[in-house]
Amino acid sequence: MTQATLSRTWVVSLASLVFAGGLGYGLYTLYLNAPGLIARSNNAPTPLPVRGTVQAADGTPIATSTGDQVRIHPLGLSMSQVIGFGERANGKGLSGLERDLEPTLAGGGTVRLTLDPTVQAIAETALWKGLQTSGSDWGTALVMETKTGKLLAVANGPAFDPTAKRGDPQEDLAWRNHAFAVPIEPGSTMKTLTAAMLLQENVATLESHVDAPMWRKVGGWTINDVIHHPENLTLRQVLEYSSNVGISRLAERLPRDFLYTYMKKLHFADSRPMQAITVAAPKIRPLPKWGAIEYANATFGQGFLITPLHLTAAYNALANDGVYLPPTLLEGQTAKPEPIFRPEVAQAIRKALGDGAEKIARNAFLPGYYVGGKTGTAQVVVNGRYSGSVFSALYAGFFPADKPKVTVVVVFYHPKGERIHGAYIAAPVFHDIAAGLYALWGVPPDFGKLESHDKKVN
Amino acid sequence: MSTLWRWAGVYLLLMSGLTAFGYLNQRRTAHLEDLQTRILDLERRQTQLTLQRFDLLSPLALRQWAEANGYTPMSLAKWERKLP
């Protein structure tokens, strides 16, 4: 009896132990596998936030990331140089806004730009067409809203595909935002600003005369004019014929430091013209190093380097009745206005460019509309000397010239062929941008108004 | 002996419950994985469709299409000039 009792106890104990073991194992397995158990410790690494989106002014995503951290560019080639690119593995920004706005984007923040996809498309279509025609190494076109300083378009060419395999960044420059990254000599586009300085200081009017032969000697150097013109010109004609001799002679009426001071006021020496965005620093000799030839050169835009962005902002001061507005690319940034020229001065210069648009550059002229601007063709320094074959071709202007809505600057670097001047290379692009924008705004041509302007000129 | 059978019954019952629970848990995990795969597929499809949409309808694509099809911006169209 005693034996049987002991045996049963033993069996029951053993069964209980097996039962408890099995139950424990089962519960442990459940604990390991169950996805929803609160008690389970979470050893999985916290996923990184999805990289933030860069949006256009209307909310269109320009660069955005999918849940599996793939960076996509819904607008394709459009704005690609401005946005830039990042490392393929982790998305870390390497160029453009992807680099400048890295902290915000890496934290998943959304950034809205001032760029308008339609205006950008108009500028890009025109620029890329011009690039193909001219065979230039690269080109850029900027459109700035006159009253706010907002950049509506920053087009660059050749087009850059951010998703394609990248070549050598030193050889293939398609990735670069030339508008912000490359300082160039503004050439004759500077004459308009010099003329505004002369008017502002009351040392000349648009009808002031100057003796302007086709060439003159300054400090042992020869200054030449390209377009044949009468020997005596008014300031208005100096702009129309783009006379280097004329503008440099007239500018001698200003004390030398005035030109430099105005250039500084126009932010031509400012290495940070725009908040939070990297822009290449201009290159201007300090005033004590200016001799007679440096001064003369500066009056027609040679001997100093500024980015196309700097030039756009300076021209916008003329468009905005003499008030400089720092350019903005990020929505929500405020621009502090800085008066530089009297409104009458800016208006007079705009009228001179608007009335003389057809004479200054027939290719920029848009029948039925009042557009104004100035051409520029600048020699480029290669290996420390001005090259005889490498030039940059520019056109800077605004429209409507009487009450501008936008300021537009077009730059081409190293156009090929016989016609390398701004009037042939950059002006047609300005024309196409103006045509596109007027169509976008729904403004029909007004031949009556144009005729009245013609009559005023005559 | 009846005690033993009772305990065995309890054990079997609990083991059956545990098995059923484990099985349900596995089903749930598999379903979750299916859903996650589906979400990923849908996200990829959404990305693809978004890119396709912008490929066809972005301002740049529209302009290129319009130009290729001979559309002229209003500002460059021919306008009749009023005679004096």
Write the layout of secondary structure elements.
The complex is a heterodimer of chains A (about 450) and B (about 80).
Chain A (H helix, E strand, L loop, with lengths): L1 H32 L20 E2 L5 E5 L5 E2 L7 H4 L12 H5 L1 H5 L4 E2 L4 H18 L3 E8 L5 E7 L20 H4 L7 H12 L8 E3 L3 E4 L2 E4 L7 E3 H7 L2 H8 L4 H10 L26 H8 L8 H12 L3 E2 L13 E2 L3 H13 L1 H4 L11 E11 L2 E15 L6 E8 L8 H4 L1 H15 L5 H11 L1
Parallel strand pairs in A: 1-4
Antiparallel strand pairs in A: 1-2, 2-3, 5-6, 5-15, 7-10, 8-9, 11-12, 13-14, 14-15
Chain B lengths: L1 H56 L1 H10 L16
Helix pairs in contact in B: 1-2
Task: Characterise this structure.
By secondary structure, chain A is an alpha+beta fold. Chain A contains 17 helices and 15 strands. Chain A has a five-stranded antiparallel sheet, with helices on both faces. In chain A, a hairpin with a 5-residue loop joins strand 2 (61-65) and strand 3 (71-72). In chain A, helix 5 (117-134) packs antiparallel against helix 16 (427-441). Chain B is mainly α. Chain B has two helices and no strands. Chain B has helices at 2-57, 59-68. Classes of the chains: A alpha+beta (458), B mainly alpha (84).
Biggest β-sheet strands, sense, barrel of chain A: 5 strands, antiparallel
Helix residue percentage of chain B: over 70%
- Kindly report the average pLDDT value of chain B: 87
Q: Given the structure, what is the number of helices of chain A?
A: 17
- Shape category of chain A: elongated
The helix/strand class of chain A is: alpha+beta
